[in-house]
Amino acid sequence: xxxxxxxxxxxxxxxxxxxxxxxxxVRSFTERQPNTHNDNPFGLVYAGAVTENANGKVNIHPxxxxxxxxxxxxxxxxxxxxxxxNGKKYPAVTVAHPNGGVKEQxxxxxxxxxxxxxxxxxAADAAYQGESGGTPRHTDxxxxxxxxxxxxxxxxxxYPGVDVxxxxxxxxxxxxxxxxxxxxxxxxxxxxxxxxxFNSGRVRREGYMSxxxxxxxxRLKQASDARAEIVANDKVLASGTVDFDALTDESINAIANxxxxxxxxxxxxxxxxxxxxxxxxxxxxxxxxAWDATDNxxxxxxxxxxxxxxxxxxxxxxxxxxxxxxxTNDKExxxxxxxxxxxxxxxxxxxxKEIEKLKEFFGRTL
Length: 366
Hints:
This protein is α/β, with parallel strands linked by helices. The chain has a single domain (2-365), classed as Alpha/Beta hydrolase fold, catalytic domain (Rossmann fold, 3-Layer(aba) Sandwich). The protein has helices spanning 2-16, 18-23, 106-116, 142-158, 174-183, 200-206, 216-233, 249-253, 258-270, 285-288, 315-324, 348-365; strands at residues 30-31, 59-67, 70-78, 90-96, 120-124, 162-172, 191-195, 238-239, 280-281, 304-309, 331-336. The strands form two sheets. The chain has a nine-stranded mixed beta sheet with strand order 1-2-3-5-4-6-7-10-11, sandwiched between helices. Strands 8-9 form a two-stranded antiparallel sheet. The longest helix has 18 residues, at 216-233.
């Protein structure tokens, strides 16, 4: 019965759509005790992460806030010279994490690096994921993922020291697709950037690199059956489940495409975090497969930067989106030579080039 009630509420929110979201934007935030699982006091798993808040350095502020009745866990990064008491205002950027990722991984790395460049940044766990609230867990529905980004913008508009006229957005992988979706209607932001953009709707519908086009209707039936299972038995079925403990180098290296092969290394080995999982509710596919990040992308009329690895087999997703983004003349597809998709998350050489490009882009547009 519990999941039936929860799922009914979820469906109600979907039907209400933007009208519901307009009722409950972020209006305040509170400090939050970080969830520590490793030697880093903030649980961060990327190289060079903040380990303490010290004067004259980038500081991290774990916070939480309410968005559409769900508690969102986030980290705000402030620049070394941050001091809102003297009236100084700073440009700010939202950072949306990849599918399966959490704020302590690549989203935190880019939030920290942009804070080092003088921006106030926020990286938040998506609703139903990470440290954020919401059940059923691992729900991955475009409406909520897009609302997460609008909510981060809400947060920045009330955060001390933020110049509300200089807010930008950055989305990574799946967070990039949802950031594009948010940018279609989010007129409080002045520029939008993506890194290794992943169009979740297209991939869930067609398969990665169009590998499952022939069985779309079969998988839609499976998603509908998963909804029926909730109604009949209060059972939430999952897809994308991976036992990270069972991963071996041999099994990883046998994966043909670079996104999933390198992803298993990143999420399962080198940058593992207990809150990070590839799992999502199977019923989410009823919404995901009918959605596309490029639908009405021409509504984006602000500067657009899309960054991707030149060797990534996911490059086709960014190429498709940038071509369809006809609503802005200020757009660029910036390629990182030789980089695979996941490598753009952490390889120092590639990250350095991406940060320099973001500094140039946001410096010009914000």
